[in-house]
């Protein structure tokens, strides 16, 4: 194919929508992941609602045999994700987690979980 014809074909495909970037899918849904601290695995379930870059929802984590639940808030500006999970144990006692990472695919978030004691743990979250 002559060079000019190839250029015209590529230009036509690009303008017809065949070569557009994938659409940014909202983060809403159920995401799961694990963190390991001192040989103990903590399982997390994040139930997220995202609209216009604002994240809200609930999350729970299990430290066998007890499960704790708290409120999630955060922000999403593709591909950056920031979330805070606050668990209330008693009226004056809370445990805070911050998850900071990036969206690496529609159903995968990779980042670091920070706890209120200064601990940091790699955590991949998967939707589904």
What can you tell me about this protein's structure?
The chain is mainly beta and 128 residues long. The protein has one domain (24-127): Quinohemoprotein amine dehydrogenase alpha subunit, domain 2 (Lipocalin, Beta Barrel). Helices cover 11% and strands 65% of the residues. The protein has 1 helix and 8 strands; from the N terminus they run αββββββββ. The chain has one helix at 3-16; strands at 29-37, 40-51, 54-63, 66-77, 80-90, 93-105, 108-115, 120-127. An 8-stranded antiparallel beta barrel has the order 1-2-3-4-5-6-7-8. Strand 1 (29-37) and strand 2 form a beta hairpin. The protein is globular, with a radius of gyration of 20 Å.
Our measurement of the CA-to-CA distance between the termini, rounded to an integer number of angstroms, reads 45 Å
Radius of gyration: 20 Å
Q: Could you give a short account of the major beta sheet?
A: 8 strands, antiparallel, barrel
Report the β-strand fraction as a percent range: over 45%
- CATH fold descriptor: Lipocalin
What's the CATH class label?
Answer: Mainly Beta
Helix content: 10-25%
Q: Are there runs of 5+ residues with pLDDT below 50, and where?
A: 6-22
Strand order of the largest sheet: 1-2-3-4-5-6-7-8
CATH architectural type: Beta Barrel
* Number of distinct beta strands: 8
Q: Number of helix segments?
A: 1
**Shape from CA axes?**
globular
> What's the average pLDDT?
84
| Count of discrete structural domains | 1
């Amino acid at each position: 194919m002559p060079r000019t014809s190839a250029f015209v074909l590529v230009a036509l495909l690009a303008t017809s929508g065949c070569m557009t970037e994938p659409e940014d899918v909202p983060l809403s849904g159920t995401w799961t992941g694990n963190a390991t601290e001192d040989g103990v695995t903590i399982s997390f379930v994040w139930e997220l609602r995202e609209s216009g870059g604002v994240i809200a929802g609930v999350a729970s984590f299990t430290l066998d045999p007890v499960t704790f639940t708290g409120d999630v808030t955060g922000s999403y500006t593709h591909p950056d994700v920031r979330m805070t999970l606050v668990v209330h144990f008693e009226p004056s006692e809370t445990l805070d987690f911050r998850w900071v990472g990036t969206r690496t695919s529609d159903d995968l978030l990779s980042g670091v979980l920070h706890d209120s004691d200064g601990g940091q743990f790699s955590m991949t979250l998967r939707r589904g």
